[in-house]
Amino acid sequence: MTEYDPRLVAPACLYLASKVEESTVQARLLVFYIKKMCGSDDKYRFEIKDILEMEMKLLEALDYYLVVYHPYRPLLQLLQDAGITDLTQFAWGLVNDTYKMDLILIYPPYMIALACIYIASVLKDKDTTSWFEELRVDMNIVKNISMEILDFYDTYKIDPQRGLQEDKIIPVMNKLPSKA
After folding, report:
1. Burial group, residue 56, by CB count within 10 angstroms (0-12, 13-18, 19+)
2. Which of 25, 43, 55, 87 could bridge to 18 as Cys pair (CB 3.0-4.6 Å)?
3. pLDDT on residue 155
4. InterPro entries from the xrefs (predicted)?
């Protein structure tokens, strides 16, 4: 943070992330929108070459390691293993919503997938207790991740099924232990 200006690092990170995820945003558009949003503020006066140079510094800092693991593959494998593929669409939507939080930076993808399966199975009244016991995973971690997801929905009053009514959140919240 002291070596490089965070106001330059942030858009360079966005630029690099868009390339890694194969949703490339052109550097010139990034510069255009930064200028449009920040107006005449000289602190945000970056040119395309500044972002491209910072991209190279980011790549060096990451040691050119750009493999990103997402929860989708483990989600599909775990749902198939549990024999509850009918929860795929719902659990997939939950995984999508985890990208609005910092969970992907904190927990391994398979744990996020398990938490989404846990929430989906509770909301859809599927008994997965014995399956989770067979996995021998730390259910406290799964439940903590689940609580974070549900807290997100509760905070923003979102319905994972349709955009979440309060009467749907409360039963799930009641089944989970409170955070220690």
Report:
1. exposed
2. 25
3. 82
4. Cyclin-like_dom (IPR013763), Cyclin-like_sf (IPR036915), Cyclin/Ssn8 (IPR043198), Cyclin_N (IPR006671)
**Tens digit of each residue's pLDDT (9 = 90 or more) over 132-141:** 999 989 999 9
Tokens for 141?
């971690």
Give the separation between CA 21 and CA 97, rounded to whole angstroms: 17
- Side-chain half-sphere exposure of 133, counting CA atoms within 13 A: 4
Residues of the chain with pLDDT under 50: 164, 178-180
Taking the whole predicted model, whether its pTM rises above 0.85 is answered as no
Backbone φ and ψ of 113, nearest 5°: -60, -45
Domains of the chain: 4-60 (no CATH), 69-173 (1.10.472.10)
Give residue 28's identity as a one-letter amino acid code.
R
Distance linking the first and last C-alpha atoms of the chain = 33
How many Cα atoms are found within 13 Å in the side-chain-facing hemisphere of 113?
19
The SS3 of residue 172 is: helix
Task: Write phi, then psi, for 136 (nearest 5 degrees).
Answer: 55, 45
What are the respective helix, strand and coil percentages of the chain, to the nearest 5?
Answer: 70, 0, 30
Q: What is the pLDDT of residue 166?
A: 55
Distances (CA, A) of 88 to 5, 113, 124, 172: 42, 11, 12, 19
